[in-house]
Amino acid sequence: MPESYPREHIEDLVDDNLEWSELHNMMSDFKDADRFQQVRDVLQERVDWDDPIVIPYADHLYVVAKSDDRWVIKCDCGHEFCEHDENWKHDALINVRDTEEEYLEIYPEDMHPHPDYMELREYFCPGCQTLLEVTNVMPGYPIIHEFEPDIETFYEDWIGEPIPTPETQSA
Amino acid sequence: MSSEQHPSDASGEKEYEQSEESFPRMQEEKRKVQTKLENGEGIGWEGQSLREQFEDLEEKTEKTGHYAGFEKLSLKDENPIEYEQMFAQLRGELVNARETSKEVAATPIVEQEGELCYGLFTPEGDSIAISTGIIVHIHTMSEAIKYMINHDYEESPGIEPGDIFVNNDTHVGNVHPCDIATLIPIFHEGELIAWAGGVNHVIDTGAVGPGSMNVSQASRFGDGAYYTARKIGEELEIYNSWKNDFPDKTRTPDFLKLDERTRMTGCLMIRNAVNDLIDDYGIEKFKQLSREAIEDGRRGFRSRIQKTMLPGTYRGASFVDALYEGQKNLSRAYASENHLMHAPSELHVREDGSFQVSFEGANKWGWHPYNCTPAAIQGGIWVMLTQTVIPNKLVNDGAYYSCDFHLPEGSWANTQNTETAHAYAWHFLVSAWAPLWQHLSRGYFSRGFREEINSGNANTSNWLQGGGIDQFDKLHAVNSFEAACEGTGARYVDDGEPHAAAIWNPEGDMGDAEVWEMTEPLPFLGRNVKPNTGGAGRRTGGAGFESMRTIKDVSRWLLYEMGNGYMSSDSGLFGGYPAASGYILNAQDTDLKERFENGEDYPQSDLDPESGDFESKIEGEVTRRPEGISTPKEFDDYDMYLNYLRGGSGLGDPLEREPEKVVEDIHDGYVLPRHAKDAYAVVVNKVDDEAKHNSAVQGEWELDEEATEELREERMEEREERAQPVSEWYEDERLRIRDDEDLIEDVKKTYESSMRMSKQFTDFYCDFWELPDDFRFSLSEDAEKSLENRFKTGMKKKWKNPTKSHETWLGVGRDDEPEVPYTWTSERSIQDLSGPDASFETPSKEPATDDD
């Protein structure tokens, strides 16, 4: 079990360059202790902006530090959605598939949900139009706030590190 | 067991080999226990009664925060190699018991699919170690043991060496009645030191319709035979009363008799292994190990969570349909209505890595066989966790001690009503846990453990079931367990596995067609990968498959379908799409026989439901409809039935999928060529009509890279044009809901049911859409009547005298936490729910409808 993988290995993980056998070994092994920091550092290098990444939040999305006490959710294209504890979906673009015709673009006939019973809500980034999430819900369902990480507890109690700030990033 | 059996076969010890008695070690233990009982002592440790010992354990666990008060793991810390040796020996013997005993069974369900598992439990019913297999039942058996303790089985009917118990009661400890458990107590020096337990899925439960999971009943009374933690034998001999009873309660008695021998074989192998371990290491070390392994499992769970996830709150919701309006052969007229399951799912990961799981807002149970009990939900979530959070051998009830569950009483997730039906509880259960996969995956993503991310594994269907007079002119029933082999959800680092597994059976398999044909009068006409079943995405969901079956040499034969149809419960993740939903395809009164005789084409598949291919190759009465459930209907020779096994959900934006992979998907039969363009914006051209690839799809396609690049650019522009800001959409949607427009009755009834169940959900719903406090959906008279009927039925609890810590779905959480954890947005207290229209807190005095 590696306590820590070489930096190149983590870069390959982030860049999707690992072979299946290597991924399988990573699944089978005990987990490396510094994965979070290593992945965060690689991702920080990959993005085109300077705000320090506090956590990767979802595919393409990050919680970044704008100051000591202000964190926002930001897309890797640079679009900033909202404060970290708000639901980014409220600031996204939405397309709702709720007709037979729209379902048939993705699924064959009879193999998709019935539009009266379930709709697909597609959420896009207003900055780059990437499809960030698709939810399948009953019509009329509220938008769910899926993830509210407890960032303070994570940094202070679980990994024992200060939360990144613009100052520490530039230092 | 035969009394002629050589004693050494049972005891495994030389000192008993010369004995004239059968099972001499057991007989000696029985004498010791009887002496203790005569002296007024209990069968627990140091003369305690079992209930006293159980209460003592609960108290120590609660007081110290460690299992049984084990703050230190002295055996593990001081003698780690010995600890591992002992645990590995137990674990090995449990796996051995499963692999050996499954050869005793005759049903492909056990022998091919491995629908069998074993566990070793503490005297109080907590699992210490388990075999492979359908390990959901490690916790359900745990509940069954605790039920016996809490209902004074020590006094009556007694718990003594050589006793044999069975259980399949969902309210005691099971998911659904077709999983039958055998439990035997293991004694040493007159003390109960452990339980061995085994479960397998039987082929027919004697329900109102044939098969193990009939779908046409409204209540428990149509589910089939229930055996409530019943003693069925002593001195390892089964009572004549049992031998003469249960075979007539099933359509497949021979299979069930062998199933019982299978479970007994495994339990006795485990008992022998425990005796060997005690002989080798001593009883004190065995007792120490049994406590430490569970505390070790409890700590291991928390440690793993702290290493791989983030603390905080994760939310989601899932749904599935069970449409019964207009279905035939229902056992009650009031069951003829459509049901939608609503499962709000919330996971709170505490600072210490433990879990709070809440289903607050779940809607009311229904007159359908998809209701759940706490044992089902806890066991089900537990088996899921073993495949994600605990991917090692240290799987036991330690994980259970790290999870608190809030399962609202009176909801489909915890009916607390012994009248409810549960035959296929998994339909709701697997659909309801779909968001939990995503909660875990979001945590793994934030921590960088991309290799662990999975978009989810949910609804596993179709279930081909039925029965009648088979090809051997015998009464028979079938349940094709091809459903143990479905497409799995996409991983972050790779596509989902095609036609691979079902999450309730980690060792699942589709089974050999030839073996199914030996036990089912349903010859295979074809078995193929089914295109477009896996959800689209950067990583696609694993594809499902389909079998085209016909019927041969039967009379009075019934078949039915069971699966999702109008809803998909397999949500995508990070921009991936849900898996496809199901449909029904049958043909009756066909010309298949003539086609065989004339050597003409006949349908072997239904790869593309839009193609008309199936209909072009058969004459007859074709039923093709988008629902997933049908109640039993008659089929005859040369009729046809499509068994469609679902795929997994996708992950990531489909426009990020490498175009070359989409071409591979076409050739592998995972994607229909027309959907390359629609779903992935990939342009392909057919270059050969004849070429064959790794699927039933014929032809060769090539990628047009330039056109694909252009199309993807166009598609991004289209997205911007087609989509609107959420704020705009919200305004339109809010008015639609406020003015009660558009939503169909089934949907409104589901919302109303959740609102009447939960003030928290009502507040969440009304706050989100800015609706007035007194907002209610208008319902038809029939829908109102349906809700009233169920709410008024009240509760009929199975557990009459639980120990203090047993009702784990109540009062979950610590003293400094709200009683129902972090659910939705409002102030919390489940006690707030009592009121004229939220009746689950105060059972109605109205007489219940006690018949079926």
Contiguous runs where pLDDT drops below 50 for at least 5 residues of chain B: 1-12, 821-852
Give me the strand/helix succession of chain A.
HHHEEEEEHEEEHH
- Tally the helices of chain A: what do you get? 6
Number of strands of chain A: 8
Largest interface: A-B, 77 and 94 residues
**In total, how many beta strands of chain B?**
23
Backbone structural class of chain A:
alpha+beta
Proportion of residues in helical segments of chain B: 25-40%
Mean pLDDT of chain B: 91
Percent in strands of chain B: 15-25%
In whole angstroms, the N-to-C terminal distance of chain B is 37 Å
Query: What portion of residues of chain A belong to β-strands?
Result: 25-35%
Distance between the termini of chain A: 33 Å
Q: What are the salient characteristics of this protein?
A:
heterodimer; A: four-stranded antiparallel β-sheet; three-stranded antiparallel β-sheet; B: 852 residues; alpha+beta; seven-stranded antiparallel β-sheet; 24 helices; 23 strands; 16% strand; disordered N terminus
Report on this structure.
The complex is a heterodimer of chains A (171) and B (852). Chain A is of the alpha+beta class. Chain A has helices spanning 7-14, 20-28, 35-46, 100-103, 151-158, 166-170; strands at residues 53-58, 61-67, 70-75, 80-83, 93-97, 119-124, 131-137, 147-149. In chain A, the strands form 2 sheets. A 4-stranded antiparallel sheet of chain A has the order 1-2-3-4. In chain A, a hairpin with a 2-residue loop joins strand 2 (61-67) and strand 3. The model of chain A has no long low-confidence stretch (mean pLDDT 96). Chain B is an alpha+beta fold. In chain B, strands 2-1-5-4-3-6-7 form a 7-stranded antiparallel sheet. In chain B, 60% of the residues are buried. Mean pLDDT of chain B is 91; it is low at 1-12 and 821-852. At the A-B interface, helix 1, helix 2, helix 3, strand 1 and strand 5 of A face helix 11, strand 8, strand 9, helix 14 and helix 19 of B. Strand 5 of chain A pairs antiparallel with strand 23 (724-725) of chain B.
